[in-house]
Amino acid sequence: MRIVLATGNRHKAEELGPMLGGRAEVDVASEGFAVDETGATLLQNALLKAWALRPEVPADRLVVADDSGLEVRALGGRPGVHSARYAGPDCGFDDNNRLLLSEMDGVEDRRAAFVCVLVALSADGELAAGCGLCPGDIATAPRGEHGFGYDPVFIPRGMGTSMAELTPEQKNAISHRGRAARMLATALGIAE
Ligand code: ITT
């Protein structure tokens, strides 16, 4: 099986490659791949990415798209589907983390969850999906250098460290994306 990841986020590709790649060959969409993410849900946005890349790749490849985000309970689920551009259209990860920590300043209930939806789309329109959740809490200050996005300000449930303090293998073992990838791999018959 040959997979092409419909993402312009190299961090996602680095995480998904080894997780889906045991029994499949995994490539990534050409640099600059981006889609107008107008969906109201992670599933809609994952489908938009998969549909956008499908005509660009040969029929023997399976397209796999990831839409993911951070749901914070005290913020009514925000940033959620808007996680990538929470602090504005051209913001970076640090801008998002600063905004999140300022919104959570003094907030006692720090419960949150990372969520990931993966969609696979074949040339004949066959679809499969996987989803995963990682519960945790919002930290009071960033910590750690690994991972990307909100990892430095997210403390996975039961851990004394931020997600960014985990090695890639440790993160994949418990993360929303790791769980979604294992569900999708099982649906596709490529689980190890
Ligand atoms: P593509 O659409 O090209 O895949 P993107 O970064 O725009 O890349 P999303 O629209 O799915 O992807 O937004 C996901 C955002 O959620 C991402 O930019 C991070 O801010 C956050 N996020 C998702 N997974 C994460 C993870 O494992 N660790 C930290 N932050 C994560």
Overall mean pLDDT score?
97
Report Rg.
16 Å
Order of helices and strands: EHEHEHEEEHH
Please indicate the count of domains. 1
CATH-scheme architecture: Alpha-Beta Complex
Count of DSSP E strands?
6
CATH class, named Alpha Beta
Distinct small molecules: inosine 5'-triphosphate
Main sheet properties: 6 strands, mixed
What class would the helix/strand composition place it in? alpha/beta
Given the C-alpha coordinates, what overall shape results?
globular
Bin the helical content: 25-40%
Number of helices: 5
Output the CATH topology: Maf protein
What's the arrangement of strands in the largest beta sheet? Answer: 2-1-3-4-5-6
Poorly predicted tracts of residues: none
The amount of beta strand, in percent, is 15-25%
Q: Report how far apart the termini are.
A: 14 Å
